[in-house]
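ingest -> validate -> predict -> emit
validate: passed (alphabet ok, no gaps, 152 aa)
predict: started
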Amino acid sequence: MKLAIGSDHGGFELKEKLKQYIKDTFHYEVVDFGTHSTEAVDYPDFAFLVAAAVAEGQFPLGIIVDGAGIGSAMVANKLPGVRAGNCNDIYMARNSRAHNQANVLTLGSQVVGTGLAQEIVKVWLETTFEARHQKRIDKILHLEKQIYGFGK
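emit:
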């Protein structure tokens, strides 16, 4: 399994820890879209790169880390085909996958510590979509098709 990951400067340190955790625990191929230091950058640039890679089908899943996770979720959700959930607790992580078939997870490095972030990622990666919610996902896809003129 392949996973796209990225962060801004505020999420850099947590992203680095999560990359290793995902590789060690799940044996995923993790591709880092940056940033690669704590030097100040703008989160939309990196959120877009991860979300675009998911939207284009290069990666089935992506994770983006910034200070709160909110801004990156806003950026990611602008791209058709992306369902990003800002999940700073375990319940939201499980729900975003089981009910909403989220394919991008955003996290806030100023909201969660490393241990909780790892648990959130674990639950998010291990939770499968519950087909009983497909009707709602179909409505999202229909809206994307109406707005963007393409999709399933």
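DSSP finds six helices and five strands in the chain.
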